[in-house]
Design goal:
The complex is a heterodimer of chains A (414) and B (472). Chain A contains 8 helices and 25 strands. Chain A has helices at residues 6-15, 29-42, 51-61, 115-124, 175-185, 241-250, 303-316, 364-373; strands spanning 46-49, 76-81, 85-91, 95-102, 104-107, 110-114, 130-135, 139-144, 147-152, 171-174, 201-206, 209-215, 219-226, 235-239, 256-261, 265-269, 273-278, 297-302, 323-329, 332-339, 343-350, 358-363, 378-383, 390-395, 402-407. Chain B is an alpha/beta fold and 472 residues long. The chains are: A alpha+beta (414), B alpha/beta (472).
């Protein structure tokens, strides 16, 4: 645990209330502020941190800093002293990430500093302890070995408060299971601004099972995992993929995550790190309705061969539609592509398929993307007709999870 | 007052924004756009069926409820998936392909995006005299057997003599017999603009459909095609397509085809294929008849004594528009002075015209004594703003409307270049000017009070032009 100087303990316990364990301290700024503001002005925060711990904190939160923002303070990180060290926080108002790393706190306080500059400095510092001190509300000094920096920060009061999520009705999920769901589905979300619902990943919590679904209307990914008895409330949550990406990245697979829901927000936390996100207001469209139940033609193909054939074909496919034609014949899958002003290409590969010939058009990119996430070497494709949804599933997967992807065809003009 | 679908949607949406939770508004209403509106319904486009259904069930009634307050009249708000989405080659699981046989028969909007027809421009309202009987007879014949007798029909004459009136009368006549008739009515400038836009947005297909798959093509002021080579080329093909389909074409211009400089030979010859008819200045009796008709139409036959009508007819000779402008001016003067209309009052009200005609004949009067400044001054006085305001950058509604009107009048009366107009109004871009002109043209067709106001100003300015004197 954090190596904390005895003097810092004294200063911290004198000047700062301890945080109730049920609420993320990130959101308790108001109570924190009122008691300690006087203190900042007179003395300012001061701590020493190892270069590794500084980088660790920065790497955790800087991905949540928005690239462009109209609110200047969002380009900054909030650094706060805690009982155990320093808490780094960043937000883009949709999601907020904070993490705590150990440091020697000499005097308590909080300040915001430009995220980008602090990261750039930290990367180039020699491997010596880094002394950071705030003087006044806006100035930060950083010393490491013989290097000295003075940075202009912004008062911590300007850093936005995030709506509170109370953890007293929280439930627990294994980080590994969440990672698995996220990594197999969130790629399929829509990026179209006019379809905000589809910009989120649907997370369904059911008795003994949880499921994630994402789609952009053209292709869909769905995975479900059986879960043990849990206190999770049943219901549907629509979560921005950006937040899920942070969750996947920040929490080690072996950890248990604590999750709680606020009115329009969701909070995830482990002992040191927390992620909060706005939820997309539903409902989510009825995706079950579009998953074909009566696809009566199917084939099993080798994922690697299919991928390379598709990659070859997509070279010649149109940049806009990426349209290729696939012709399923008994024992043979034929590919063809013809793009005006560019040229044409054909390819073929042996497959196990019995049935009448079926010609169907696809966006090659959608298929390639789905294949990338398929966990098995063989995949099973199912069809009904050229203008009906096709499905892709792992073949011979021993995992207990159920995974299915769906892709809508492109209309073949000729 | 008519708002575009986007403006209607914006007004309703602003109200919904206040009534709904922010998240709901942002998710469901903010990202979508209006498609079209008629008197009863505003259609709003949704990206998929799911979004259309949800909005329809949750927000349609709410938005419909706002209409009377936000727009001043009731309007239904409906949601549907945009046609563009449904037609894409990439299939979408939440978008259904439009069914081949739609439930409601397609409603033809004869004028669609083109300038709407003016309700008063009918054959009944057209006063035939010696100066325009050939043109009127040809127009009437064209409306009786479109595409057969006189095709194309080319009507030319000075401004304000009734070319547009005849053009629209043909459309009215044909529409009254077949309301689903497909008509394209545009000024040549509008044709040019739409052509350019079609090139820019790569929607030539739509453009061709709009101007070629029609039963009647009406193009006003073809002289503005001069010097625009690609537009002429496109117009040439449009012309041929319609001509070969034996559909009626009617064109107007301020001069005969052969005198339009900068017009390709092949177009000139095509314009002369059918009937070329002239509208000329009306003679005295004709002018009296026009004024009587105008008085009847406005239900003023009892308020304006015959002697006053004759008096105006004797002194106002330049155009029909000016004749009508004189009546408007006389009425305004009478109501301003609060006196009944009499010969004496007419003499007072129109003294500038009298002076003009006594000192010199209208034809010899300096043709353009009006300038941008005069137009700005008159328009700003009419709208109760300042000329400086018109030239300023301010874009409040109080200023934009008169500014657009002033730009419109500069274009119409002074035939200034778009760039010149832009410069005269605080250095505005020529595209802004185009937009303003279109805006006014649209408003003229739909808002009668507005049209009257502009006609009054125009009358005053034209009087000024002939007499070189400032009116009222």
């Amino acid at each position: 645990m954090a190596k904390v100087l005895r003097s810092a303990y004294v200063a911290a316990s004198l000047d700062k209330p301890t945080f109730p364990a049920t609420t993320a301290c990130f959101y308790l700024k108001d109570s924190f502020k009122s008691s300690s503001r006087q203190f900042f002005h007179t003395k300012g925060m001061r701590f020493t941190i190892s270069r590794e711990k500084l980088l660790e904190g920065l790497q955790a939160v800087t991905p949540a800093v928005p690239a462009k923002t109209t609110l200047p303070v969002l380009a900054n990180l909030l650094l706060e002293t805690t009982e155990r060290g320093i808490r780094f926080s960043a937000t883009d108002l949709d999601i907020a990430v904070s993490t705590e790393v150990s440091a020697d706190v000499e005097s308590a306080g909080a300040i915001t500093v430009p995220a980008k500059k602090l990261s750039e400095i930290a990367r180039e510092l020699p491997p010596s302890p880094v002394k950071i001190a705030a003087s006044g509300e806006q100035r930060v000094t950083l010393e490491c070995g013989r290097s000295r920096f003075k940075l202009l920060g912004l008062p911590r009061d300007e850093f936005p408060t995030f709506p509170s999520v109370r953890f007293n009705e929280s439930w627990r999920v294994k980080s590994a299971e969440l990672q698995k769901l996220i990594s197999h589905t969130s790629f399929a979300v829509s990026t179209e601004e006019s379809r905000p619902i589809l910009n989120g990943v649907l997370w369904e919590l059911r008795e003994g099972m949880m499921r994630m679904v994402a789609t952009n209307g053209h292709r869909l990914a769905k995975m479900e995992i059986a879960i043990e008895e849990s206190s999770a409330p049943q219901g549907d949550l629509i979560v921005p993929p950006k937040a899920l990406e942070q969750i996947r990245r920040l929490f080690p697979a072996e950890e248990d995550l604590e999750i709680a829901r606020g009115d329009n927000h969701l909070g995830f936390r482990s002992p040191f790190t927390s992620v909060f996100t706005r939820l997309v207001e539903g409902p989510y469209p009825n995706y079950e309705q579009v998953i074909p139940k009566d696809n009566d033609r199917y084939c099993i193909v080798d994922k690697a061969s299919l991928t390379s054939a598709l990659k070859r074909m997509s070279v010649i496919a149109s940049d806009q539609t990426h349209r290729i034609r696939m012709s399923f014949n008994s024992g043979m899958l034929k590919f063809s592509v013809a793009t005006p002003d560019l040229g044409e290409a054909q390819d073929e590969m042996p497959i196990t398929y019995t049935g009448d010939q079926l010609d169907i058009g696809f966006n090659a990119n959608y298929l390639l993307e789905i294949l990338r996430y398929m966990p098995t070497e063989q995949v099973r494709l199912t069809f009904k007709a050229p203008e009906r949804a096709a499905t892709v599933e792992p073949e011979g997967w021993t995992d207990s999870a159920k995974y299915l992807c769906l892709v809508m065809p492109l209309r073949l003009m000729d | 007052m008519s708002l575009s679908p986007a403006e209607i949607w914006d007004r309703l949406r602003q109200r919904a924004k206040l009534a709904l939770p922010e998240q709901t508004y942002r998710t469901w209403l903010e990202p979508i756009e209006a498609l079209e509106a008629d008197n009863e319904t505003l259609w709003v486009g949704a990206p998929d069926q799911f979004s259309a259904d949800w909005n329809e069930s949750r927000h349609a009634d709410l938005l419909t409820g706002f209409a009377p307050v936000a727009l001043g009249h009731p309007l239904n708000v409906r949601f549907r998936v945009t046609d563009e989405r449904a037609g894409r080659v990439q299939m979408d699981m939440f978008v259904h392909r439009p069914t081949p046989a739609p439930l409601a028969p397609p409603v033809h909007h004869p004028t669609r995006t083109s300038t709407p027809l003016s309700a008063t421009y009918t054959f009944e309202q057209f006063v035939i005299g010696k100066s325009n009987d050939v043109a009127a007879a040809a127009a009437h014949a064209a409306s009786q057997s479109p595409g057969k007798t006189y095709n194309p029909l080319f009507i030319y004459g000075e401004t304000g003599l009734g070319k547009t009136h005849l053009l629209q009368a043909i459309a009215h006549e044909l529409l009254s017999r077949n309301p689903s008739l497909r008509i394209a009515y545009a000024s040549s400038e509008q044709f040019t603009n739409e052509f350019i836009e079609a090139i820019q947005t790569k929607s030539m297909g739509d453009f061709k459909r709009r101007f070629r798959e029609i039963d009647l093509l009406l193009i006003d002021d073809v002289q503005f095609l001069k010097g625009k080579e690609s537009t002429q080329e496109e117009f040439f093909h449009t012309f041929n397509a319609i001509y070969e389909a034996e559909r009626q074409i009617v064109l107007t211009s301020d001069r005969p085809p052969s005198e339009i400089a900068g017009l390709e030979k092949r177009l000139v010859s095509r314009f002369e294929w059918g009937m070329v008819a002239n509208v000329d200045l009306p003679d005295l009796e004709h002018r009296i008849a026009i004024l009587r008709k105008k008085a009847m139409a406005d239900h003023l036959e009892l308020t304006i004594p015959d002697e006053v009508i004759e008096f105006i007819a004797q002194h106002v000779k330049s155009s029909v528009r000016e004749l009508e402008g004189s009546i408007i001016k006389l009425l305004a003067y009478a109501s301003f002075k609060n006196r009944p209309i009499s010969l004496e009052l007419a003499r007072e009200a129109l003294k500038d015209k009298l002076k003009g005609s006594s000192s010199s004949d209208y034809a010899d009067a300096p043709p353009t004594t009006i300038t941008v400044a005069t137009i700005q001054q008159l328009v700003s006085r009419e709208w109760g703003v300042t000329s400086e305001g018109l030239r300023s950058k301010t874009r409040t509604k109080q200023l934009t409307v008169p500014r657009q009107v002033a730009m419109y009048l500069c274009r119409e009366l002074l035939a200034l270049q778009l760039v010149e107009i832009g410069n005269a109004f605080g250095g505005r871009d020529h595209s802004t000017v185009i937009h303003s002109l279109e805006r006014v043209a649209t408003e003229l067709g739909v808002d009668e009070t507005f049209a009257d106001r502009v006609a009054k100003l125009r009358g005053m300015l034209e009087t000024l032009r002939t007499t070189g004197q400032m009116g009222v």
